[in-house]
Design goal:
Blueprint (H helix, E strand, L loop, with lengths): L1 E4 L18 E3 L2 H20 L1 H12 L3 H38 L4 E3 L5 E4 L1
Parallel strand pairs: 1-4
Antiparallel strand pairs: 2-3, 3-4
Helix pairs in contact: 1-3, 2-3
């Protein structure tokens, strides 16, 4: 059973609307899921564009000969994936936090096992 709880105090002063306990935890399911999904999507997009990064790395690394070419290609591909993953994680976490705050019952009372939202 879930209820909407109207809270006028700061988040650190939350009380359970059912039992009055102050033992409240944030669940953050949307934030965690959004971060994971965003990271996977970002790494996928980064890997798809990694060929461009590998080409750029190879061009820069070509100055160092065959070894520079190989290392430059690898570094360019890795950086493309990492940057895509970081950007995706950031966006996904932000969207997940909005879902937590606007849609889900993001707070959980550890005393009576009740979930509620603060609007």
């Amino acid at each position: 059973m879930t209820e909407e709880f109207i809270q006028t105090h700061s988040e650190s002063e939350l009380i359970c609307p059912r039992c009055g306990s102050v033992h409240i935890q944030k669940r953050n399911f949307g934030k965690k899921a959004g971060g994971t999904i965003g990271t996977v999507a970002g790494v996928t997009a980064g890997a798809a564009s990694a060929m461009g990064g590998a080409e750029l790395g190879a061009a820069v690394g070509a100055i160092g000969g065959p070894l520079g070419f190989a290392l430059g290609s690898l570094a360019g591909a890795i950086l493309g994936g990492l940057m895509g993953g970081a950007a995706g994680c950031s966006v996904g976490t932000s969207l997940g936090e909005v879902v937590d705050n606007k849609v889900l019952d993001n707070y959980h009372c550890t005393t009576c096992d009740f979930s509620f939202s603060v609007r």
